[in-house]
């Protein structure tokens, strides 16, 4: 997958392939997001175009005064990896700066989408664009003027609740890992490095952490999956000088893992009080590891 970083305004000399493009921030790349991206890929294959995704960095809400989005369900590098695994040919990462945040809906189409040679644009039902999100799918259809196809993907629900990044963030606050994994259609994943002798984990990227508690997890180590527990004493963290993120995460079974190497941690479930107290319980609830709508 080719990754192209863009800033506004685009260079007059910028040239790219014609594409079927999916647009969105896509934090989490959950099941609903996957539907948007897969439709763009489907149409690209049907018409011989390149499949593309346009995403943004940082999150638009980071420009607000309260700066509420400092941690992510899927930081950029993880998001790019998921896009590639889905089969995307090109990802455009647009710098969401103050200048770009003030772009008008018309200029977004005329000065961004058309130069990108987008012949098909796939968006979610709640997509917004332009200054302060002033425009939506209906406006994009009008501004296209037949120059590119616009496909809007409807909401996808699970048990009468919309699958959304906002609801995944709420589930993280509640420690509801089963719901999160269902909405993502994969296990919620973070990565970090072990430091010291107490199993403390330093995050490699600003992942959004579940609530304080103890969790069943699995880690790939020594050429096999190791089931273990992760204790979260504090879900807030500070950025270190080396670019890592320190928080109070402590990993059991640390002796099985290499120190100072990045490890991937996949969440299975939150342990409840009675489970933590049961010393005989050594295996996670594997029957809960299937994710159905």
Automatic annotation (TrEMBL):
<keyword id="KW-0274">FAD</keyword>
<comment type="similarity">
    <text>Belongs to the RibF family.</text>
</comment>
<dbReference type="GO" id="GO:0005524">
    <property type="term" value="F:ATP binding"/>
</dbReference>
<dbReference type="GO" id="GO:0003919">
    <property type="term" value="F:FMN adenylyltransferase activity"/>
</dbReference>
<comment type="pathway">
    <text>Cofactor biosynthesis; FAD biosynthesis; FAD from FMN: step 1/1.</text>
</comment>
<dbReference type="Pfam" id="PF06574">
    <property type="entry name" value="FAD_syn"/>
</dbReference>
<keyword id="KW-0285">Flavoprotein</keyword>
<protein>
    <recommendedName>
        <fullName>FAD synthase</fullName>
        <ecNumber>2.7.7.2</ecNumber>
    </recommendedName>
</protein>
<keyword id="KW-0067">ATP-binding</keyword>
<dbReference type="InterPro" id="IPR023468">
    <property type="entry name" value="Riboflavin_kinase"/>
</dbReference>
<dbReference type="GO" id="GO:0009231">
    <property type="term" value="P:riboflavin biosynthetic process"/>
</dbReference>
<dbReference type="GO" id="GO:0009398">
    <property type="term" value="P:FMN biosynthetic process"/>
</dbReference>
<dbReference type="InterPro" id="IPR014729">
    <property type="entry name" value="Rossmann-like_a/b/a_fold"/>
</dbReference>
<dbReference type="GO" id="GO:0008531">
    <property type="term" value="F:riboflavin kinase activity"/>
</dbReference>
<dbReference type="InterPro" id="IPR015864">
    <property type="entry name" value="FAD_synthase"/>
</dbReference>
<keyword id="KW-0547">Nucleotide-binding</keyword>
<keyword id="KW-0808">Transferase</keyword>
<keyword id="KW-0288">FMN</keyword>
<feature type="domain" description="FAD synthetase">
    <location>
        <begin position="18"/>
        <end position="167"/>
    </location>
</feature>
<keyword id="KW-0548">Nucleotidyltransferase</keyword>
<dbReference type="GO" id="GO:0006747">
    <property type="term" value="P:FAD biosynthetic process"/>
</dbReference>
């Amino acid at each position: 997958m080719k990754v192209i970083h863009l800033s506004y305004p685009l260079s007059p000399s910028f040239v790219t392939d014609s594409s079927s493009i999916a647009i969105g921030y896509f934090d989490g790349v959950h099941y609903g997001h996957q539907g948007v991206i897969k439709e763009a890929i489907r149409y690209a294959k049907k018409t011989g175009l390149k499949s593309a995704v346009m995403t943004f960095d940082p999150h638009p809400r980071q420009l607000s005064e309260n700066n509420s989005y400092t941690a992510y369900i899927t930081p950029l590098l993880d998001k790019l990896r998921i896009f590639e695994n889905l089969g995307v040919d090109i990802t455009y990462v647009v710098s969401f700066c103050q200048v770009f945040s003030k772009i008008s809906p018309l200029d977004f189409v005329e000065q961004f989408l058309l130069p990108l040679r987008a012949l098909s644009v796939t968006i979610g039902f709640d997509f917004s664009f332009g200054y302060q999100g002033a425009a939506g799918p209906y406006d994009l259809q009008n501004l296209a003027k037949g120059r590119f196809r616009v496909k809007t993907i409807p909401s996808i629900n699970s048990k009468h609740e919309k699958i959304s990044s906002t609801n995944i963030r709420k589930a993280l606050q509640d420690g509801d890992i089963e719901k999160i994994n269902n909405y993502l259609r994969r296990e919620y994943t973070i990565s970090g490095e072990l430091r010291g002798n107490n199993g403390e984990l330093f995050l490699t990227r600003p992942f959004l952490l579940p609530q304080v508690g103890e969790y069943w997890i699995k880690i790939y180590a020594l050429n096999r999956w190791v089931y273990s527990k992760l204790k979260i004493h504090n879900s807030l963290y500070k950025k270190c000088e080396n670019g890592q993120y320190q928080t109070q995460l402590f990993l059991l079974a640390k002796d099985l893992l290499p120190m100072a190497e990045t490890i991937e941690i996949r969440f299975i479930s939150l342990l409840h009080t009675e489970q933590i107290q049961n010393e005989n319980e050594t295996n996670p609830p594997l029957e809960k590891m299937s994710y159905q709508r």
